[in-house]
């Protein structure tokens, strides 16, 4: 990634979990970075201090005039802004659950926001890396799932992301816009204050002896550490052969929720009695694991295994959350 230096970069959703880690990495690589975030879920505490090389704008990607103004000062746009409500306000859960409760808002943020980014990039000749999601696959017929498999989303979130992907491909085909689509699987790590790992830790704190978790525990996911996601996004942004392509960004390693919870309990030194409710939210997918053939053929492979990633995540949690 040494060739990604001295660029003007715009990061949307840059105060969030993945976005803020991306901002740090881009600054470490000696780039000038501006981030836009409406702070609906992100936090200023995640961001470095403003400086000659870093600026923060509180704003919304649905504001085209603002987006275009920022795009004029950018060589590359990493588009991570999304409809992810603050769990302190709406309670625990997953983005899939939130999108099913507010599908119009999810559509507006994801699709109109992405269209604004693409049109601004077309006018200003910036390139775009779009952070999509593995949720577009829905319940695939086979796993690991390849990028060539048909999309069949089971949630409003997956549907709006897939619609945004289609606009990315349209702008690439019709306008020659440099666009890369990264379908991110289950990212985790420091600054993630929602989803199954954080939910587990909150429940453990409330009751260290008995935990009740959603679902059956048999759902299988592909958990990728946040730094591997960030490195993958930066890696793809400088690969000419990635332009116009859709690529999985995961690990290819299947892990059941039951096994994940066991890892977490062991790492915490806890021995709670863990039960599963047997029910989950609508749109929850049973099994979703990435095929990484395309990504590996380009020369990128994630570095973190799950146990090491959990160790680092828990270190952050103890320092910040406890």
What's this, in brief?
The protein is α/β, with parallel strands linked by helices and about 325 residues long. About 40% of the residues lie in helices and about 15% in strands. Mean pLDDT is about 90; it is low at about 90-95.
Explain what this protein looks like in three dimensions:
This protein has helices at 17-28, 64-71, 87-90, 95-101, 103-124, 156-175, 195-206, 226-237, 257-268, 293-298, 306-320, and strands spanning 8-12, 32-37, 54-58, 76-79, 127-133, 179-184, 186-188, 210-213, 220-221, 223-225, 246-249, 255-256, 273-276. By secondary structure, it is α/β, with parallel strands linked by helices. The strands form 4 sheets. A 7-stranded parallel sheet has the order 3-2-1-4-5-6-11, with helices on both faces. Strands 7-10 form a two-stranded parallel sheet. Helix 2 (64-71) runs parallel beside helix 5 (103-124), helix 5 packs parallel to helix 6 (156-175) and helix 9 (257-268) packs across helix 11. Residues 89-93 have low confidence and may be disordered.
